Fold this protein.
Amino acid sequence: MKGVGLVLFIISVWTLASGQDITTPITDSAIQRYNDSTITERTLRDKEWRFVEKLMQKERRSKRLPDIIGIGVKKCGTHALIQLLAHHPMIRSRYPTEAFYFQRRNLSSAQEQEYIQSMPETEDNAFIMEKTPAYFTFPHNIPRRIKSTSEYSKLLLIMCDPAKRVISDYVQDIIVGSIKKEDYPTVESYLEVYLNNYRKFTSWRDEKEMKSHQDELFKLHYTDYPSTILTNGLYALHLPRWFEHYNSSNLHIINGDEMLQNPGRVMEKVQDFLGIPKLLLEEDYILNAETQTYCFLHPLTKKKSCIGSYKMRTRNGKMKVDEKTLESLREFYRVPNELLYKLLNVRLYG
């Protein structure tokens, strides 16, 4: 937990970038002068960026537990999220980004130290981030595990249209060999096997039945892994376990469709959630007309960094999907989606 140190760091950035004496108290009148300044948002941001980089150079470095953990959802844009967020000068990403640490059957102090050593050596006021999309759905006790091990970590969860997510997950599992092409040559052949057999998990009468569904899905993860292509999208069934340990102060939910259409706006919201200087602005993200994915244009170096064209292959319109297939999936997720909207008090998509 960074606490006072981070607050002082951010105040230093604010005062130095705005040209105010760092020893001057930050009063209401000082804030008004700051707001009335003729410095444009972009100019001020560029100054803040340089000051952050300078302050970081003077800080002690160490390895520690992550400050930010991306917990999923698989195939909803988690790679794009960490790739775009990592441009912030206060964010340090683990490489490889996916640790799978909290999915291990048994955790020990020795394994925790191994996990820490896998993190980048990072400045005191920088944020270390790892993301493992599989955390969201498995195992059942993973929210408690993360909370007890890394109490002050903030979580990022990106959820996308579950119907389209199935297509992407199917394609990915074929590519990596998690399922065999000869068993399920098309996504339609997969759905013929699973769609009706797993429909019972799409609704529940009370909390007891919901927990029963959860327990059965965790067992099926071991015995029938291909089923997770479908069941990972039952967000309303998985999310309550996380709400037992987290709330909006330490778990930020991202609309995957908004991430696809306006990543810059999403980055601004994430920076607010993390409590760090807003250095990544909506205007920094430009659409690549060829791939229909976004690129980040560095405000200082003007270097362009783009999301790989192999990412979002099923959600950016480049891969054509049979509309009847999507309709059958939308009908499958109709009830659990409504339960999700009721749980969150907001409609994410559809």
Remarks:
- The CA atoms of residues 64 and 113 lie 9 Å apart.
